[in-house]
Amino acid sequence: MNFASTLLLWYDNNERPLPWRETKDAYAIWLSEVILQQTRIVQGMSYWQHFMRQWPTVYDLANASEDEVLKAWQGLGYYSRARNLHKAAQQVVELKGFPHTAKELKKLKGVGEYTAAAIASFAFDEKIAVVDGNVYRVLSRYKGIDTPIDTTSGKKEFQSLSQTLLPTHDSARYNQAIMDFGAIQCTPTSPHCDICPLCESCVAFREQRINQLPVKSKKIHQQERHLTYIYIQYNDEIVLHQRGAGDIWQGLWELPQLEHLSKEDGEEWKREAIEVCKDVKHVLTHQLLFANLYYWAPQQRPILSADFIWIPTEKIADYALPRLMEILLDRLRKSNLMLGSNL
């Protein structure tokens, strides 16, 4: 029995029941693929279900506002995915439907090689290999390939190999099978080699190199940043600021930072503000953040620039906030400092 046949037989008994696999709707499939980038299935499932309820079709999503989409995305992180999702939905509407090939799908905002191949394979039965992290791991171990998977040459090598192994029939099902095999059987750590149907022909198993494959060449450098936020409460209102382009959390809302205060307000803040928490650590892919939070209830309403808004304290749940803001606000709730706030 060859590689593909073995995987398909394994899949018959181990397929993960996922709702987006029960449809050929390109919108539902695309949505699942975008949500599950950088997100585990157990977390992403509820988001997918929420999006499908709120915007059942790509036309509904295209007609939503970016703020609505970002709010629905809150908690998933990597917010560029949500902005790209919204823009791509508008592109699909302009095209009067999803393109049917991976080549054309890649023209949509935020749709790369993997996502294009996944939609083309699962929605439109294009005979194209879908290569994700699970596939890299399975093939690098099975074939004993030590070419780094994060290099251009590595990506080309694995894409070519994957296409060669793709069966003529059941190609979409095979793509699902090899990804599930990597997620369930050939896991990153402690793979189940003792019950693996491929172990007899697996190079890494034979050469005891399971823990050495796949190979990555690049290490992510994290920039360290220190941020000081101020929860400003005047009467029953608080201040929010919408982040602009060119930095983290584009389009999301945050509390004002110390640097946003005028010189006069800064002097008052030093005298009156109360420390809530200090050096709260928050890890992003390329940045390591340490945040301080202070609570300030000024006697007079501070004058802030036009890109700040005052909102009723109970309305903060209506705004899309980065995860770090949620953490800081939770610390503030537990401090019991807020004056008559419904936060």
Automatic annotation (TrEMBL):
Pfam families: HHH (PF00633), HhH-GPD (PF00730), NUDIX_4 (PF14815)
Record family assignment: Belongs to the Nth/MutY family.
Function of the molecule: Adenine glycosylase active on G-A mispairs. MutY also corrects error-prone DNA synthesis past GO lesions which are due to the oxidatively damaged form of guanine: 7,8-dihydro-8-oxoguanine (8-oxo-dGTP).
Gene: mutY
Originating organism: Prevotella veroralis F0319
CC cofactor note: Binds 1 [4Fe-4S] cluster.
Keyword annotations from UniProtKB, A to Z: 4Fe-4S, DNA damage, DNA repair, Glycosidase, Hydrolase, Iron, Iron-sulfur, Metal-binding
Transmembrane segments annotated in the record for this chain: none
Organism classification: Bacteria, Pseudomonadati, Bacteroidota, Bacteroidia, Bacteroidales
GO MF annotation, one: oxidized purine DNA binding
Top-level division of the source organism's lineage: Bacteria
Occurrences of domain HhH-GPD (ranges): 35-184
Claim: Transcription regulation is one of the keywords in the record: no
Protein name: Adenine DNA glycosylase
Classification via CDD domains: ENDO3c, NUDIX_DNA_Glycosylase_C-MutY
